[in-house]
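Journal club prep — side note

Before the paper discussion, L.F. wants everyone to see what a predicted structure for a comparable chain looks like in token form. Sequence:
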Amino acid sequence: MTAPIHVAVTGAAGQIGYAALFRLASGDVFGPNQPVVLHLVELPQALGALDGIHMELDDCAFPTLVGVEKHSSDNLEAAFAGCNWVLLVGSVPRKAGMERADLIRINGPIFTSTGKAIQASAAKDVRVVVVGNPCNTNCLIAMSNAPEVPKDRWFAMTRLDQNRAVAQLAIKAGRPIAAVSNVAIWGNHSATQFPDFANAKIDGKPATDVITDHAWLKGDFISTVQQRGAAVIKARGASSAASAANAALDTVKGIIRPTPAGTCVSAAVFTDGSQYDIPAGIVCGLPLSSDGTNWKTLPGFQIDEFSRSVIQKTVDELLQERDTVKDLLP
């Protein structure tokens, strides 16, 4: 009998959490033969909604779902006990008139206690994906407050940006999504991030050879990907939920499944200063690959003068965010 994987999802009753839970339970992420126990975590005032979600999970009759636990965010150590994966979806959203630095300061203390709880009670092989924004710096805060959990177990989500960039390149080239590969996201999951077209491939050819409108690549392509979240909010009156949940699960799958040759997966990871002249000590989007057990930063991506200038802007933002929360980093 295969031992179950325990997966915690914070903000489980929110739109992103709700969209992710049923795919986690169904076998879509960990496979049709892997039992899963879900740990649903919510604010005390939202615990009633978890009862309804539990009912729905039961009503789906997923063979792979072998348990559901419901926990208050007031007791994160109990919520994360024995968990192999923790998806940190819940965070305070940015409101009208709020500066990014304000949001960082509000969410920072939440991720301080979250990191401590993960270290105290999660499984020894725990891996953490931070979705709640600003996810790069929230990840840095949580990681810094869980020093016994290896730093290569922590990821902030840039896969949503990668998926958005792939779609835009496919549309522009008039090719299917599957034709586009090797699209990296550098830097912060914010309006400064750099969707790397220069190293991307379309049907195995350089994207810059297939899409000859280089002004579009350097202009509208980048800005469309950077501003896509705001465009979704304007169009539907609410932030990205289904696509964000999908990207969070794509992140997990990208870590636990071998990366096809000639392509990369995108996630933000802790930097040690040895890759691409990115300074040490931030959680930065990089091109990665996995063998299904261990991941690495992919070498060999060409960084021209234009790319370097855009990457520098997003790295500078991450350094500024780190300075903003330096008192929360032990």
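L.F.'s comment for the group: The two ends are 41 Å apart (CA to CA). Keep this in mind when we get to the figures.
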